[in-house]
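Continuing the series of single-chain predictions for the mutant panel. This is the parent chain; the variants come on the following pages.
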Amino acid sequence: MSVSLPSNPDSPKSDASLTQWLDYMQQIHVSAIDMGLSRVLPVAEHLGIVQSAKEDTYVFTVAGTNGKGSTTAVISALCQAAGYKTALYQSPHLSHFNERVRINGEMVSDETLIAAFDKVESARLQCGLTLSFFEMTTLAALLIFAEADCQVWVLEVGLGGRLDVVNIIDADLAVITNIGIDHVDWLGDNVEAIGSEKAGILRDNISLIYGATEMPNSVQQLINQHNASCYQVGIDFSYSVVDENTWQYSNAAVTLQLPRPALSLTNTANALSAVLASPLEVDINAIEKALTTVKLAGRFDYREIKDRYWLFDVAHNEQGVEFLLAQLLPFWQQHLVKQAKQAKQNSQSSDNKQPATIKMLFSMLADKDISMVVQRLTQANLPISAWFIGEIDYPRAASIEQLKTVLASQVDASNIHAFADLQQATAAVIAEAQPQDLIVVCGSFHTIGETLVALDVA
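Parent structure:
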């Protein structure tokens, strides 16, 4: 996606803020997304990043259409609980850029980021190259990890795999969570083409965790080409729910009864498989500790805020929405049971209040399949009583008119409440929702991030 940007903005001064640096880096390249490694590699090598990643580090690289954030979060938590100094790189962020770059679970400081940006900018200028925002910021994250002597690097691919800047680092173990249709302008419009791009993170003789039951031929071909060992869900490992608090994980070597984490079991099983397939020493105590503490904002993220029940999920494509619904349908039943118990404890008759419903707080980017997402949500067996929409503060945001038009084709117009932005929509849904209702916020990372800011909990 090309954008008009200044051709020669001045580099930030030594006392520039993080916001000034982020604004600057969005202006120095001709396009927001520019896939390929030819410009990135010289800068990375100039900084010594590629060399550092090969010395006394173990690198997990995670690609896939959905679930990358949860998977990388669990891998990081497992390694950290086992005592390894662990670097975690994820994107995008929800509210604060620092969320993308963590060491031992803690966001790095503004000062650390600024120092890294300054070094990347200097190297870029010496190499005579321009870099996109994502390339600049990713190189900075990798430089921070190298300078901090992190033992384990957990890297989430931003887009695709083969041509993503993360792929300048050789993976010691690769994960592909799943392959669906998304980012068709850059990756292709079929699973074979997309699979080939995502499997581009493979290296010779490494292990791959494949987290879906169906595998494109293109992925299998690259597995064979690289002589990689593949561990696939449903064949080489499996998982199942035991009860509300416990789940079971099995592979050829072990069967484990484990505490249920706050994140999805699908992604947790993929992450655990990755760590168990690595040479890292991670015992059962570390696994249990990690699973009871790991969390990730915006991924089936349930909270009680301002006397209302909220569920935040970044689902923004077909696979993501199906994944959300698979968890939301049983969760809704649990919510109803919880409300009934509370009413009984408070000696309230169910006749004295309206039945609980779901209020949707929703917005998406214009280049996503909004109609399909709305269709999946409206056709689910859920009592959605109202939709509250506001425009995302982002260049690629869908307009209010676009959102209203799509919703009106599938939802009664009287149930659509449109606002100029998500701050106003958030205030409105709080005023409209009853204490027993569930407010579901979804559609984009930006939707979640701006809602959390509006709620003053970011």
